[in-house]
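Comment thread on ticket #2218

A.B. wrote:
> Attaching the input chain for the structure job we discussed in standup.
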Amino acid sequence: MGLTIRPLALGIIWRDDALLVFEGRDDFKGETYYRPLGGGVEFGEGSKDALVREFGEELGAEIKVGARLGVLENVFTWRDRPGHEIAFVFTAEFVDDSFYQRDEMKILDDPATARWVDVREFRDGSKILYPTGLIGLLSADQ
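C.D. wrote:
> Ran it. Output below, let me know if you need it in another format.
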């Protein structure tokens, strides 16, 4: 696959002061990081529709998409490969409140697990949150 810019839709779901994220690992950098759930926007698909589809695929969950918090451009290296993403970041809520009771949720189409992480751990730098610039959008949200 050639080098392309990947459009993403990411959902910000809060449980008190905790953000729903998945944990990833880049062994080339020796770095553990966190990112909100969501995924790629397909050709002809709106970013809100992509977010609804991705939560269905990843958690089997129905969500209600709220306001767009912003758009972030992320140029990065992951596993020693260049990447470039444009992320549409939205607030979102689970339709089924039982999802808020779960401390961890297995992502269905990936080996990763989603969990709630206190936003203070991202603000104080003890945990890494991607995409870059997201913590600034969250400050405006809360």
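A.B. wrote:
> Thanks. Noting for the ticket: The beta strands are 6-12, 14-15, 18-26, 31-40, 63-78, 81-94, 104-106, 113-118, 128-129.
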